[in-house]
Design goal:
With 242 residues, this protein is α/β, with parallel strands linked by helices. It has helices spanning 9-26, 41-52, 80-87, 109-122, 159-165, 184-188, 203-211, and strands at residues 2-6, 31-34, 62-65, 67-69, 99-100, 128-131, 153-156, 178-181, 192-197, 229-234. Strands 1-10-9-6-2-3-5 form a seven-stranded parallel β-sheet, sandwiched between helices. It has a three-stranded antiparallel β-sheet with strand order 4-8-7, covered by helices on one side. Helix 1 (9-26) packs across helix 2. It is globular. 43% of the residues are buried. The mean pLDDT is 97. Bound molecules: fructose -6-phosphate. Fructose -6-phosphate (F6R) is lined by residues 35-39, 66-67, 132-134, 138-141. The site of fructose -6-phosphate (F6R) has 14 residues, from loops.
């Protein structure tokens, strides 16, 4: 595991964007695995800026997102498809037909999850998977559990996740109760993984991810077994690592 320590969020975002840009330079027809949440927003801003300046070309790039709320349409501002369009896809020359986010409107969970796995397979697998880290060590919507889920699956959101996410909705009752997420196996199959982490509130989770025991109780700890993981984290997030 390679660890880059940055001074702050802005530096973290720039470094992570440089790694993604290098991947696109190296293989213009690459498949990016993408994440939502607050941490990658600055990374996407840098990528958009470099595209607008003419130094980055997304025309050959395909993408697969980690997760999506079940029941939310792409037009819903809280959906992860909306997030991706708004933060990246609408501002660069990526072909949206080749951007895959689990279909939140597919009510048949099995079908929705199989479609996502199939999309990843059809693209030939993920070259570089971007991940954020949850405070409890989750990646995607893979929450602490007694096993590592293998493939894309439907999860019931925990009460703590519903409480954490309700700030984005006008009413708690509007927070979806389920989501589709890549499994730990899907994530581990990516050729390279890039984890972005910022802030002191992630310090315990990052410490457990890097140097704690490998356990489904800290889903991100499995990344210790992946041969090509790069962590870009700021000083605050790395403050608990000895
Ligand atoms: C996002 C995702 C989540 C987030 C994690 C951290 O697609 O799957 O696992 O990466 O919850 O979220 P932020 O960055 O908002 O702290």
């Amino acid at each position: 595991m390679r660890i880059y320590k940055t001074k702050n969020y802005d530096e973290m975002s720039k470094k992570a964007a440089q790694i993604i840009a290098a991947q696109i330079e190296l293989k213009p027809e690459c498949v990016l695995g993408l994440a939502t949440g607050s941490t990658p927003v600055g990374t996407y801003q840098n990528l958009v800026k470099w595209y607008q300046e003419g130094s980055l070309d997304f025309s050959g790039v395909s993408s697969c997102n980690l997760d999506e709320y079940k029941g939310l349409s792409p037009e819903n501002e809280q959906s992860y498809r909306y997030f991706m369009n708004h933060n990246l896809f609408d501002h660069v020359n990526i072909d949206k037909e080749r951007t895959f986010v689990p279909n939140g409107l597919e009510e048949d969970s099995k079908q929705a999850c199989e479609m996502h796995e199939q999309a990843i397979r059809a693209l030939g697998g993920i070259d570089l998977q971007l991940l954020g880290l949850g405070r409890n060590g989750h990646i995607g919507f893979n929450e602490p559990a007694d096993h590592f889920p293998k493939e894309t699956h439907c999860v019931n959101l925990t009460e703590s996740t519903i409480q954490a996410n309700k700030r984005f909705f006008s009413d708690e009752s509007e927070v979806p109760r389920q989501a589709y997420t890549m499994g730990i196996g899907t994530i581990m199959n990516a050729a390279k993984i890039l984890v972005v982490v910022s802030g002191e509130d992630k310090a315990d989770a990052l410490c457990a991810m890097i140097s704690g025991p490998i356990t489904p109780d800290v889903p991100a700890s499995i990344l210790q077994l992946h041969p090509d993981v790069t962590v870009v984290a700021d000083e605050a997030a790395l403050s608990k690592l000895k």
